[in-house]
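Lab notebook page, bench 4
Experiment: in silico fold of construct C2
Operator: M.H.
Input chain length: 267 residues
Purpose: comparison with the prior construct
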Amino acid sequence: AAPADSAGEAVAAASFAPPPALSPAPTRTARQPPELAAEPEVEAQRWAATALSLAPGATFEVPIFVPEPSRCRYSFTVAAADGSVVGFSIGLLGMKPQATARAAQHDGEIEVPGGVGGMLVVTLDNNNSMFSNTVVACEVVTEPLSQLAAVSRFRERQLLRHNLFQAQEELAAQDDALAAIAAEEVVLQDELEKAQAAVEAAAQRIAANSARGSAVETRKCELQDEVRALQAGVGKMLWEVLRASWRKALKPQPHSKADAKMATHEP
């Protein structure tokens, strides 16, 4: 039984040794996001007046040539905060204005068809005032629709490239995480096998100890039977000795040589 115990202890000791340290996962070189290309330029036309003074009842017109369909943004603000207002209109020359307003402040946006000879006309008037000038700030910006569309498409492509890069980076990170999990699983599987071997060795030791205990119990019973037999034999021998001594003690002793001689001839 002793060799089996030693083997079991050796296996158990080896099984419950500290697990080997996990090898560090290979570090992945971080990719740089794609370089952003230069955004297409928009050739905007801008007319602005920061302090345009309009005389009472005066009208001011600004022609702006528009060679192609464009977006037009406009705004105006009366400088004085005394409730003064101005009239504003914008549209192609010789056509009905596309936007009008009469206010102290206003802004908006229109699309101008444009084309060869297309002329946009901006009109400001001070018809609401009969005695004082009105100072107004105004800005008009035109931007070709084709160029704006190119910028929009460019930004969409850049966004798609950025999203693709982010998705690829996330996928690579998930691959790294799966690789680390797989490596840890190998180590854990090895530890599990060692633990199972230790359990089997312990079961063998338990079985060996049980068999040894049964043999000891059987020998104990045999020794108890031998002790009882020896005790019975010793008791019998003592009884025989006692009987012999009693017989000798109870037998009458002769008082003379003649009596002794007679006694020796007695049956």
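Observations: The radius of gyration is 61 Å. The mean pLDDT is 84.
Next step: discuss at group meeting.
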